[in-house]
Amino acid sequence: MTTPLALIFYENLLIGNQLVNRLRDLGYRVKPVTDLSQLTALAAEEKPLLFVTELGVQAEPLCTAVRALKADPATAHVPVLAIQRPTRKRADRKVAEGARAAGVALVASESACLTQLPELLGRVLEIE
């Protein structure tokens, strides 16, 4: 049996490294996504259990990539967990709504992801 794979995309190196370490501690292999336009092809090739992403500055290309992931029958089943830094701006709520509309299963705060990652992963995997 192989170890489950999580694809991960992040902009902030600190949160990215923390998430990679937490995912590895939970028994996942982790592969970074460096080009969002290649997400669907990478997911079709690698067959990940899930995709974890930061919802930051590149939110628009990220939403485009998630839409493409969900539109492809070979990758539509891959659940997506997005992490958002809380800033209490209305724009952040709109970004989170846009991400959910694109196909993100769950948008969680950075602090929740770092403290409750196993529970959040369970919810995301349950939703799909």
At the fourth level of CATH, the homologous superfamily is Response regulator
Query: Which fold name is given in CATH as the topology?
Result: Rossmann fold
> SSE order in H/E notation?
EHEHEHEHEH
The overall pLDDT, averaged over residues, is 91
Strand-residue fraction? 15-25%
What is the radius of gyration? 13 Å
Please mark out the parts with pLDDT under 50 across 5 or more consecutive residues, or reply none: none
Largest beta sheet, briefly? Answer: 5 strands, parallel
- Helix tally equals 5
> Helix- and strand-based class?
alpha/beta
CATH C-level class is Alpha Beta
Query: What is the terminal-to-terminal distance?
Result: 22 Å
As for the number of domains, it is 1
Could you give the count of β-strands?
Answer: 5
Helix content: 40-55%
Q: Label the overall shape.
A: globular
| Main β-sheet, spatial strand arrangement | 2-1-3-4-5
Would you identify the CATH architecture?
Answer: 3-Layer(aba) Sandwich
